[in-house]
Design a protein that fits this description.
heterodimer, A: about 100 residues, alpha+beta, five-stranded antiparallel β-sheet, 2 helices, 5 strands, about 30% helix, globular, B: about 375 residues, alpha/beta, four-stranded parallel β-sheet, 15 helices, about 15% strand, binds iron/sulfur cluster
Chain lengths: ~100, ~375
């Protein structure tokens, strides 16, 4: 849970709550973008970020994102994070 | 160097390993008189074992595995309080999956769930917020856990809950901070520490200056590091260079992610929502002054401790460790995981006795997972 995972912000979903859709290793997940917003909210769309328990914590570049993802796969953490996201979805439905 | 091929860039890894070997001999460190480098972060511990860095580096370096895995340092008393909260019929207890198997005195959260408590594993405190919106007749408690990297997520979630006026969402706050236990370890006369590899993602939030005291007051080098194996090797080189040259500075190997002064939005949210507790208990280390955070009075409506009258402030506290568990000695580097009599016998990742066996970031679990299990001789 401590290492986070890189994802690309693809669209704003709820600007009033600073929420946006991120694509994380092929999986879509709504995240909070407050920590990486410095000016206009729209400017964040298209950017890569290190996403940590549902919050975009730091902006990174695409190359760094790829390297980080590879390192996380090596540690088995990428898979764990994706499973945690799926578990979170299931919990909302009352399935877990 | 049988593992070196596994690196993304084996050539770079070999060059760094050669550099490390050269520095170790220049310093004059040997197996008998090694330099002790503590990696603070559990992610680093995991990477060290995964890539066999402890075996690839010369005998003159001894890695001491620090207390930087929030699941591993969670004391039994707090697990007990989680279980008590989760057993309340009106409560939906939400937690990161990592915390499910941490042993408590009575049971773990996993056992409590099997016994019928409504415990849900979530990915984010945002999932817990959403559960609260969808279940207005229930009380949703989120198990807030983690160092400075995770603290902003619960702070921002509490601020959001306040803005929405949610009345059925609260956080059971167990957030802890990295610098105080480092100070406690440096003050421990039994500890030999020559330098530190600092947690990069914590510094992504707090910057590098909270570590100034390590260099200025204790005269020890610290290098804030990324968690890729090459980052770690490079950071070890930077620590050794400081030792060789007689310097003690805070250096930033991970500047591509870590801003000198941290993340202003996250820091402001933490400051708004949390304040330091006078002291907080760490598994294996005991109570450490000003090492934990609690929710400020103005957000008391979102504080599970205040709301359900549990935890600190609700009466005298008992500290306890599992019988025969050597987690404290392992955590302070006095014992290697295999030297604990329970390792691989009474304590395995499937059935952990101590918290260091629970998460892949715990030294015992990492050791067990990557070959350490082989080190266990059959019991006589
Ligand atoms: S083997 Fe188990 S009991 Fe022993 S120190 Fe490690 S986690 Fe604790």
């Amino acid at each position: 849970m401590c290492l986070g995972i890189p994802g690309q912000i693809v669209a704003l979903t709820d600007p009033s709550r600073m929420m946006a859709m991120a694509e994380v290793s092929g999986v879509r997940r709504e995240v909070n973008i407050a920590p990486i917003v410095t000016g206009n909210l729209e400017d964040v769309v298209g950017k890569w970020a290190l996403i940590h328990v549902g919050f975009a914590m730091a902006e990174i570049d695409e190359e760094e994102a790829a390297k980080t993802l590879e390192a996380l796969r090596g540690l088995g953490e990428a898979q764990e994070t994706l499973e945690a996201m799926a578990a979170g979805d299931a919990a909302l439905e009352g399935r877990a | 160097m049988k593992y070196a091929e596994e690196f993304r860039d084996p050539k770079a890894a070999k060059a760094l390993l050669n550099e490390i070997a050269k520095l170790v001999s220049e310093i004059g460190a040997t197996k008998e008189k090694p330099v002790h480098i503590m990696e603070i972060c559990g992610g680093h511990t995991h990477a060290i074992f995964r890539y066999g860095l402890d075996k690839l580096t010369p005998d003159g370096i001894e890695f001491i595995h620090g207390p930087g895995c929030p699941v591993c340092v969670l004391p039994m008393s707090r697990v007990d309080e989680c279980v008590t909260l989760a057993e309340r019929p009106e409560v939906i207890f939400t937690t990161f999956g990592d915390a499910m198997r941490v042993p408590g005195r009575r049971k773990s959260l996993l056992q409590a769930k099997a016994d019928g408590a409504d415990i849900r594993m979530v990915y984010s405190p945002l999932d817990a917020l959403e559960l609260a919106r969808r279940n207005p007749e229930r009380e949703v408690v989120f198990f807030g856990l983690g160092f400075e990297t995770t603290t902003p997520s619960t702070a921002l979630s509490i601020q959001q809950a306040a803005r929405e006026g949610l009345t059925n969402f609260s956080v059971f706050c167990n957030h802890i901070t990295v610098p105080p236990p480092i100070k406690a370890l440096l003050d421990d006369p039994h500890m030999i520490l020559d330098g530190f590899v600092g947690p990069g993602h914590v510094s992504m939030v707090i910057g590098v200056h909270p570590y100034d005291f390590i260099a200025e007051e204790y005269g020890k080098p610290i290098v804030v590091a990324g968690f890729e194996p090459l980052d770690l090797l490079q950071s070890v080189v930077m620590v050794l260079l400081q030792i060789r040259d007689g310097r003690a500075e805070v250096e930033n190997q991970y500047s591509r992610i870590v801003p000198e002064h941290g993340n202003p939005v996250s820091l402001a949210a933490i400051e708004d929502v949390y304040e330091r507790r006078p002291s907080f208990e760490w598994r294996g280390l005991g109570e450490i002054e000003e090492s934990g955070l609690r929710i400020r009075e103005k957000y008391a409506a979102f504080d599970a401790e205040a709301k359900f009258e549990i935890g600190y402030g609700a009466g005298p506290r008992e500290t306890a460790e599992a019988e025969g568990c050597e987690c404290g000695a392992v955590m302070t580097g006095r014992l290697k995981p295999v030297q604990c009599p329970q390792f691989g016998r009474g304590c395995t990742p499937e059935m952990p006795l101590g918290a260091l066996m629970v998460s892949s970031e715990g030294a015992c679990a990492a050791y067990y997972q990557y070959g350490g299990a082989r080190a266990v001789e059959p019991a006589e």
